[in-house]
Amino acid sequence: MTAYVPGIRRNTPVVALLATTLAVWTLYTPGVEAVLRFFFPGETRLTYDRSPMLRFLGEHLALVAVGGLIAVALGTVGGLLVMSPLGRPFRDVVLRLANFGQSVPSVAIMALAVPALGYGSRPVLLALVIYSILPVMVNVVAGIESVPQAVIEAGRGMGMTRAERLVQLQLPIAMPIIMTGIRTMLVILVSAATLGAVVGAGGLGVPIMSGIGSFNNAVIAHGAVPAILLALIVDQSL
Amino acid sequence: MIELRGATKRYDATVAVDDVSLTVPDGELTILLGPSGCGKTTLLRTINRMVEIDAGEVLIDGTATTAVPPQELRRHIGYAIQSVGLFPHMTVRRNIATVPRLLGWDAARIDERVSELLSLVGLDPAAYAEKRPNELSGGEAQRIGVARALAADPPVLLMDEPFGALDPINRERLQREFAALHKRLGKTVVFVTHDIEEAVLLGDRIVLMREGRIVQSGSPEELWRGPEHQFVRDFFGDEFGLRILSRHRIADLTPGPAPERALPEVRPDTNLRDALAIMVTESADSVVIRDGDRIIGSLSFCDIVTQVRETT
Predict the structure, then answer these.
(1) Least CB-CB distance to A150: which of B76, B85, B158?
(2) By a Cβ cutoff of 8 Å, what residues of chain A touch chain B?
(3) Best CATH choice for the domain A12-237 from the list 1.10.246.80, 1.10.3720.10, 1.10.1740.10, 3.40.190.10
(4) Which of these, B140, B163, A146, lies nearest to B132 by C-alpha position?
């Protein structure tokens, strides 16, 4: 099956540049210190040095990847269900519920989930998934609803089964819109995952929180810059 | 042969198709004609079970359409619709190959068939097979739509206002080409339109509908000569006769001897409506028929008017 990607957004040179910057920032501490010293000459401590940045980046990526995968799976299944003949009566209710999930601040969900799930990555993943189902599901629904009725009717008239219409027509035609939803979700996830540090899930939030705690802008920047780079990479590469 | 026996379809309070019985003979192009909301599209869709009838039965070559699953049935009936419904994410080749792929043809056979069909609808396979629908003009897209409907060589073709979205010039061109194609392929075609001109030009038979029922059916000439209801007369209007003229050529009539005076000339394959138009333009009461170097004879205005009613 050929992919249908009108208006490709991917910007390879920019992504390469951002990824190189991220790699250097993560691996080459003397360089990072030089940059931070230039911007924050007043700080005596410039970097978060209790653990290597690579570890935080790895934790952060893991949170985003696991949370993202679960959200894509649930959001897609949910979107398809409410678009199926059986689920269609629930379309509005489910979308409103998902909207509600996104309105609740993710930190609040994390805090509320800690007593049940304990500290660590599990409350964070729960919050991230609840938070990011909406953009996936909304775009699955919007994508499928964007498929012209004539296309569906033509497929039906030529003897495609419901499953064949879904796989060969609706999903591929909806794919650009679905991908937009996934991109939005991943960007949200990268930033929301920084809050995971609050409940001990690690990630790039750790240096940020530490810097905030000690009123040290250089340390905040040490964790914030890779988080920003990561968000930009995700946005530009999908 | 398609037979509908007492086909009925209700939607809540309204009856879209009301106890319709109809026989569509093999190889003919049958037009379902009528004002919007008359049930013609619903009737068309009962044939491939996109609309399931509430009462009655539909038979194709003597077999009830309910004898096979609807998908199976539809894969053996060509289907083309007004807005074409080409799949925007697929190339022209894959669009045309839709039904053959569903039927599991091998790749070589599909490729061969796609080229054959593109040529058939007047498009160069090398130039068009890899194009996407958004790179096609309306007329080209409509040709692909027809090619796609013909892909698995179905004996029956259902068409729902296939040329409705085209500009008048392209529409007329495609209509004429399609008429020629139909003569060549001899498919059984059921064709929905609300366009009287199109119906009279293309139809071997016209089924005129109103409020879910057949008002009258027959060849355009039969409807013209013997309308059974005032509705038939009103629907076709005063230009019906002129439109009938466009279905016939000079060669279909018996010419008289050519007079000695100067008259505008027509060819044997000129249609009668054009011949009439030439007379009006040239202020002549007759035309001389010329076939190459040979003068065959002449036809007067009166000859045309009387002979069309008597001989066609």
Answers:
(1) B85
(2) 2, 4, 148, 150-151, 153-161, 164, 168-169, 172-173
(3) 1.10.3720.10
(4) B140
Binned at pLDDT 50, 70 and 90, residue A9 comes out as low
Which residues of chain B fall below pLDDT 70?
83-84, 312
Closest-CA distance of chain A to residue B6, Å: 23
Closest C-alpha among A141, A238, A236, A234 to residue A193: A234
CATH number at residue B262: 3.90.1280.20
B39 and B77 part of one domain: yes
Mutate which: B51, B74, B76, B89, vs A, most A CBs within 10 A: B89
Q: Each residue of A52-77: pLDDT tens digit? A: 888 899 999 999 999 999 999 999 99
- What are the residue ranges spanned by the domains of chain A? 12-237
State the smallest CA–CA distance between residue B208 and chain A in angstroms: 24
Is B79–A157 a contact, with Cβ atoms under 8 angstroms apart?
Answer: yes
For residues B131 and B200, membership in a common domain is answered with yes
Number of domains in chain B: 2
Q: Which residues contact B171 (CB under 8 A, 6 or more apart)?
A: B163, B198
Name, in order, each residue with C-beta under 8 angstroms of B311's C-beta and a sequence gap of 6 or more.
Answer: B252, B253, B254
Distance CA A94, CA A87 (A): 10
d(CA B104, CA B153): 14
Residue B252 inside a domain? The answer is: yes
Residue A32 to residue A39: CA distance in whole angstroms:
11
CB contact under 8 A, A157 and B89: no
Q: Do B85 and A4 touch (CB under 8 A)?
A: no
Q: What is the pTM of this model?
A: 0.80
**What is the value of ipTM here, to two decimals?**
0.82
pLDDT digits (tens, 9 = 90+) for A146-205: 999 889 999 999 999 999 999 999 999 999 999 988 988 899 899 888 888 888 888 888
Quote the minimal CA–CA distance from A140 to chain B in Å.
Answer: 17
The number of CA neighbours under 13 Å toward the Cβ of B176 is 8
B242 occurs within a structural domain: no
Cα distances (Å, whole numbers) of residue B279 to B116, B142, B284: 42, 36, 5
Structural domain boundaries enclosing B122 = 2-237
| CB-CB under 8 Å, A4 with B79 | no
